[in-house]
Specification:
Order of helices and strands: EEEEHEEEEEEEEEH
Distance between the termini: 27 Å
Number of domains: 1
Mean pLDDT: 93
CATH architecture: Sandwich
CATH topology: Jelly Rolls
Oligomer: single chain
Radius of gyration: 16 Å
Number of strands: 13
Low-confidence stretches: none
Structural class: mainly beta
Length: 183
């Protein structure tokens, strides 16, 4: 695994080596030994997957508030998505900045999203499947979200939004009143 820095401190892009032969391919999706600083004293508490069928559909922007802050390891295992992380850390020099990257089964990249970030993605290919590893259990009482089209963040989504859940559509705009997450 090759770990690459992004312009946002703590947000990482991991390139996974794919070993191919006549039978197909093999790749290591996750190894805790590769992320000692990221995981520190945490472990993977939960692994989830999602399948999104329609091109242009958006999931997010989701995050958990304290005390349920989580680090996420996300990768696309089928199809192709535009994956986005938004820095919500109040004391960060990149507060409210976003970073987007194409994740796909073909490029086998993974985004490592630290505590204090919102996450979402837009589907670029039908039937795209995402795999998420979380360092915290899902806590409905601490979940929150930001509207995907919040102009104070101004994410440059590659396509018009074709579909989203009613829950995601109801996420509030920040309106410059968001004070951030303590991390």
């Amino acid at each position: 695994m090759k770990i690459n820095l992004t312009p946002i401190n703590g947000l990482l892009v991991v390139e996974t080596a794919i070993l191919a032969d006549d039978r197909g391919s093999f790749s290591r999706l996750f190894c805790p030994k590769s992320f000692p600083e990221v995981l520190a004293d945490k472990t993977i508490a939960q692994i989830n997957s999602s399948l999104t069928e329609k091109v242009g559909a958006i999931r997010g922007l989701h995050f958990q508030k304290s005390p349920a802050l989580e680090t996420k390891f996300v990768r696309c295992t089928a199809g192709r998505v535009f994956d986005v992380a938004v820095d919500l850390r109040a004391k960060s020099s990149t507060f409210l900045q976003w970073y987007g990257i194409e994740l796909s089964a073909k490029n086998s990249k993974m985004l490592v999203i630290p505590e204090g970030f919102a996450h979402g993605f837009q589907v670029l290919e039908e039937n795209s499947e995402m795999l998420y590893l979380h360092t915290e259990f899902y806590c409905p009482e601490h979940e929150a979200g930001i509207h995907y089209n919040d102009q104070s963040i101004a994410i440059d989504w590659p396509l018009p939004c074709s579909e989203m859940s009613a829950k995601d559509a109801a996420h509030a705009m920040l309106n410059n009143h968001f004070i951030g997450l303590a991390t």
